[in-house]
Structure formats: C-alpha cells, structure tokens
Design a protein that fits this description.
- By secondary structure, this protein is an all-alpha fold.
- It has 30 helices and two strands.
- It has helices at about 5-15, 45-55, 70-80, 90-100, 100-110, 115-130, 135-140, 145-150, 155-170, 180-190, 200-210, 215-225, 225-235, 245-260, 270-285, 295-310, 320-330, 335-345, 350-355, 360-375, 375-405, 415-420, 430-440, 445-455, 465-470, 480-495, 510-520, 530-540, 545-555, 565-585; strands spanning about 525, 560.
- The chain has a two-stranded antiparallel ribbon with strand order 1-2.
- Helix 3 packs parallel to helix 6 and helix 27 (about 510-520) packs across helix 28.
- Mean pLDDT is about 90; it is low at about 1-30.
Length: about 575
C-alpha cells in the first residue's frame, strides 16, 4: 500500500513554502496503474537531464550553479510520473537507475543550494522508487540514504514530509533487499509520530510504519506504543485528531495491527475495506475510486496469510478467487509465491478449500502450467494438496452415499472435514488422542465404546479418508455412527421437535453426548444414581415432582443406562414435564 498524506496537510505545506511536493495520492486520475514500459517517450530527455545533474561534483551541490538543475529535476520528475508519462515512466525509472542517478539525487536532497532543489530531489527519488524494486534496492542500498533521512528530518516541516514520503516509498517495496535499511529507518522516523505541531507529519510517519511492518514487524512494535496502536484502531473520539477516519486509513491501521499484534482486530469495517483493497489489487486498479491509491498485491497476500494465522480464515472466503487472480496477473515471482502460499493456508478452512477446488480454469490452466514448468515448488505443493484432498473428499462421499439409507442423520462429508481440519491438515493424519477429540465434537460416543473398537489393532494414524470410513462404515467395517449414534440421533431429533416445558432449553445432540460422557466418567453406561444427583441438576431439571418421580419409577431396578436409553428417557421426561406444566396452567 502506498498512501500519502491528506490534501489538507499538503495544502498546509504549500502555504508554508513555495516547495512543490509529490503526492502519490493525487498522481493518477486513471483507474488502472499503467505498465509504463510500452514506449520510450521521454527517454532521450532523461539522458540529457541526467547528464546535466551528473555534471555537478558533490562539492557543487550547495553552490548557486546547482540551482541551474531545477529545470532538469522538474523534467525528470514529470517523466517518472505515471500520470504524465503512463507509457514509459517505468522505462525512465530503469534508465535513471542504470545511469547511477541515486547518489547525486541523495546528495542534492541533503545539500541542495535551496529548499526547492532539496525538495525536488526528494520528489524525484520517491517517484523513481514508486513500484520499482530495482530502484528501491538502489536507494536503500546507498550509504547516503540513511544519512539523508537523518539530515532532512532535522529541517523544515515541508522537507521532513518529503523525506518521509521517500522513506515510505522505499519501505513499500516488497523486495527483501531493502529490509536492512527499512529496519534502520523505523527508529529514525518514530519521533515524528509524536509531532503534534504539524499534523500531516505523524500521519506520514504512521504510513512509513505500516509499510515497514511488512519487513520488520518486531522493530515497528518496539517504537509504536500499545497506547498509540489502540488509539489509531479506534473509530470514535479517542482516535488521534491527525488521523482521518476514512476507508484507506482504517485499512492501513488494520494492516499495521495485523502485522505487529497477536490480538484480534475489533474494527467493524476493516475486513470490508480489506476485501475492497484486495479486489482492487487483483484488478490492478485504485481503491477507493478516485483516490489514486494502488495497493500492493504482494503485501495484501501477506496480510491474508497473517489473518489466516490469527484465525480469520472463516472470514476470508472472498480472498480465494482474488488470490488466484493475483497469481494469474502477478508481474514478479515473489508476488506469485506469496499468493500461492496464502491460498495454501486458506485451504485449512473447508469452505475456502471448496471454493478453490471449484476454480477449474485456474487449476487446469494456470496452476497446471506452473507445475509443468518444474520451477515453482509452491505451485506444485498447492496442486498436489488439491488433488490429494479432492480424491479423499470423493472417496468419503462415496462411502456416505453407499450407507446413507441406513444413517440418514449422519454428519455430512463437509462437517467431517471441518472437524478433522480443526486439529490436523486434511492431507495429514489424526493420532488416537486427536481422533477422540474430534469424535467428541462430531458427536460420537461413548468414548469407551470407540476405544474398545480400536483396542484390537495397532496404534496408527487416521487419514481423512480413514476417518470417514470408520465414521460411516463400509460393507466390511462396522461404522461408529451406525453402531453408536444413529438411533440416538433419531430419538433426539424427534424429541427436539416435540413441545417441551417453558424456560427449559433442551441440550443439543452434542451437549447430550457430553452430558452422558461426564456422568459415565469414561464408561459406556450411566448410573441412575448419577442421573438423579448430577445429570438432572446440570440441566436445571427439578429432582422432585410428579413427572420426575414417574420417570424414575419407569426405570426402577435398572442401575445402568446406555446412551440411547438415556436419550429416550430424557426425551420422555421433557414431554412429561411439558404435559405437567400444561395441566397446571389449565387448573
């Protein structure tokens, strides 16, 4: 993301000085970032202007003769602007890098003969770095870059703003080569966050921190106090006065928090704005419309990974087709790889996985071609995973289809996949302890009966296909659902549809099984004593009264109850309690 300060702040700068400032937020009125390499318009002029600038010796930068380069700097800035030179700005950027322009520009930025020269040199550097990894590496790798940051941050507010914009443009590059320099920039820029004399400066500093958080989140976390992080995430009157409450700034504050904090975001709007920005990045368009703000596909794919890690995967279904689109249009391998890894991470969520499985054109064309090239391990990993899991889904569905008429209340393959993936990757295996944990959530019980069915075999892992076979059963394998749960599920479904006593919520099937397991203490049966002393009180059912006494009279002489018997007895009790309540009301 490459946002810059608001128009109000820029106008304030211009009122304080005659200096002209670069703002990426107003560089383009177009809806799509142009390629910039379709023609060579202005390339000859770039060479002429660069020759003039390079004719200056370092000791000339602060001399009157340096002012003669103002026109050259103006022309270069224009040719590097993707609005004024959409067909060739990138070619002009590369020509500047090839021509070793960076040291001279950094020298003029610090020692220029006037503020106008210093400002224009910083503007040229920022436009040079814009969306150009080679240029970002050249600037960040020059020893004078950090010296320039230090020096200019001691100057006037307009020049400080200009150098912060340069720092942000460098930090916005996703190339790893700038990471070392960016980590040094963070501590230098941090004091500007507390400058409340000129409100556009803390905003520009914040935007540096946002971009830097993709390279060195630990460094950023050290200089952004928790109190400041909390305040910039606020969407009420506790938000800093210098921080606009608009979609772009709500988004970038959320990006910063996602990178540096392990806390879940509380913003009501962040995910909505993130979806809009990701769509714009996939389509290579600006967002919000008319803002001129273009979002980095690589950065937003990284944020998708981070959000997935933080547990937001169930809210990221919208990201699946957009990440696939980013893979298709990415202009560099780094973006492609990050998007592929993000897709692989989202596959942990079954809905996201199914959405990706349904992108047939992407899988058969783009992903297949990348695998065929033999050069992209991330593509091969994703394709292999999809093929493996798709095969297991089909096998599990075939097992269920074959048994469905005998187990109409069994959980779907989708349900089993969600349960399995909550503790293990779908192409992995469940250990016995994990298996029992998943079965408790299915629900399948009693656990003692499951363990007994496993006791005769060797300790082993369960793949998702194995899991489905054991749950549903096959002609040669007695499944856990048909043998342990189908009758209970049928009884409880009917019971839940029957009238019950008011103010007394009946437990779900999952809660019913958990209640039985708790009372049976790991055994296959529940004692009637425990039923009276523990089970009924936990359900807020009175242990006295005609309906309860009659229910216990019906099981007099029986010391133990199976899960199915417990479900039938409790279902009948709820009906009796409802009848008793109705009769009392009629009297």
């Amino acid at each position: 993301l490459k946002p810059l300060p608001s128009q109000e702040g820029l106008a304030l700068c211009q009122n304080r000085s005659s200096v002209s400032f670069l703002t990426l937020a107003t560089m383009s009125a177009s809806e799509c970032l142009p390629a910039g390499n379709m023609t060579d318009k202005g390339l000859d002029r770039i060479h002429v202007c660069l020759t003039g600038i390079l004719s200056l010796a370092p000791e000339d930068y602060d001399q009157p003769k340096a002012k003669n380069q103002q026109t050259n700097l103006d022309d270069i800035s224009m040719l590097l602007d993707h609005q004024h030179n959409p067909g060739a700005y990138r070619i002009c950027q590369d020509a500047m890098v090839d021509g070793a322009a960076v040291p001279a520009l950094l020298g003029l930025a610090v020692n220029g003969a006037s503020d106008a020269i210093c400002s224009k040199a910083l503007e040229v550097l920022t436009r040079l770095v814009f969306s150009n990894a080679r240029a970002a590496e050249a600037v960040a790798g020059d020893p004078a870059f950090l010296l320039a940051i230090d020096a200019v941050l001691q100057r006037s507010s307009p020049l400080r703003l200009a150098v912060l914009q340069l720092a942000q443009a460098v930090a916005a590059s996703h190339t790893l080569a700038v990471r070392s320099a960016v980590s040094e920039v963070v501590s230098r820029v941090a004091p500007q966050l507390g400058d409340d004399t000129f409100q556009v400066l803390p905003l520009a500093a914040l935007e540096v921190m946002v971009s830097a958080s993709f390279h060195c989140p630990e460094n950023v976390a050290l200089v952004v106090p928790p109190s400041l992080l909390e305040s910039i995430l606020a969407e009420d009157d506790t938000r800093p006065a210098w921080l606009p409450l608009d979609p772009v700034h709500v988004l970038i504050c959320g990006l910063l928090a996602t990178n540096v904090s392990s806390e879940r975001l509380q913003s009501a709007c962040f995910m909505e704005y993130f979806a809009c920005a990701l769509q714009a990045a996939a389509c290579q368009t600006e967002w919000p419309q008319g803002s001129g703000v273009f979002h980095s596909p690589c950065r937003l794919a990284q944020i998708t990974q981070r959000l997935t890690h933080l547990g937001y995967h169930s809210s990221l279904l919208f990201a699946v087709p957009l990440l696939a689109q980013i893979v298709e249009v990415a202009q560099d391998q780094a973006t492609t790889n990050v998007a592929l890894v993000a897709l692989r991470g989202l596959c942990r969520n079954v809905d996201c996985l199914k959405a990706l499985l349904q992108l047939t054109d992407f899988r058969q064309n783009m992903l297949h071609a990348m695998c065929e090239s033999g050069e992209d391990s991330d593509a091969r990993d994703l394709a292999s995973y999809l093929i493996t899991v798709e095969g297991m889904f089909e096998a599990a569905q075939a097992v269920l289809d074959e048994s469905k008429r005998f187990i109409p209340h069994a959980p779907s393959v989708h349900d089993l996949a969600e349960l399995f993936s909550s503790v293990a990757a779908l192409d992995g295996e469940l250990a016995t302890e994990q298996l029992l944990e998943v079965l408790r959530s299915t629900p399948i019980g009693p656990t003692a009966a499951v363990q007994a069915s496993l006791s005769g075999g060797a300790q082993r892992g369960f793949s998702f296909e194995d899991f489905a076979r054991y749950v549903y059963g096959t002609p040669t394998l007695l499944g856990w659902w048909p043998s342990l749960m189908e009758n209970t599920a049928e009884v409880w479904e009917a019971a839940s549809a029957s009238p019950g006593p008011s103010g007394m919520a009946r437990p779900s099937l999952l809660q019913l099984v958990a209640l039985f397991e708790q009372g049976s203490q790991g055994k296959s049966t529940l004692s009637t004593t425990t039923l009276l002393e523990k089970s009924l009180p936990s359900l807020a059912i009175p242990t006295e009264g005609g309906a309860v006494e009659e229910a216990f009279a019906g099981i007099r002489g029986r010391e133990k109850m199976s899960l199915e018997e417990f479900a039938r007895w409790l279902a009948d009790l709820y009906v009796a309690l409802a009848n008793e309540e109705r009769e009392a009301a009629e009297e």
